[in-house]
Design brief:
A hairpin with a 6-residue loop joins strand 2 and strand 3. The longest helix has 50 residues. This protein is mainly alpha-helical.
Length: 128
């Protein structure tokens, strides 16, 4: 069907060129709108997947950062602490240890709960 429209459009364009008419025909404009609609239909799901992937990666990075901080605290002989939740990232709802506060580096497992991604939790640390 698209091939027929394009052929018809080319025929009309040739006739207009012979008669000296200028501008676009209605068929040409409809074809352009149809092509733009197809491109938009493809782009929206891709954009949504990119946003979900970004949320997942932000949660993974936060969990890894928390595990690194807790491990560094334990290595320095101090109690394990967690990073403060960044108010700029409104999708992260909580940062916590998986279970009790760890006393050894091997037990560190940080769980980040978040919204907007393809999952709801990300874990990081040697104890996960």
């Amino acid at each position: 069907m698209l091939a027929q429209l394009l052929r018809r459009s080319a025929d009309l364009r040739a006739r207009r060129a012979a008669s000296g008419d200028r501008g676009f025909s209605l068929i040409e404009l409809i074809v352009v709108v149809a092509i733009l609609g197809i491109l938009v239909a493809i782009a929206i799901p891709v954009f949504t997947n990119i946003q979900q992937s970004a949320q997942d990666n932000a949660a993974k990075a936060t969990a890894s950062s928390g595990a690194t901080q807790a491990s560094a605290d334990l290595a320095a002989g101090q109690p394990a602490t967690l990073p403060v939740k960044d108010p700029a990232n409104k999708n992260i709802t909580s940062i916590a240890f998986d279970g009790a506060t760890p006393t050894t580096i091997d037990a560190v497992c940080v769980v980040v709960t978040y919204t907007g991604g393809s999952a709801t939790q990300q874990k990081a640390g040697p104890g996960c």
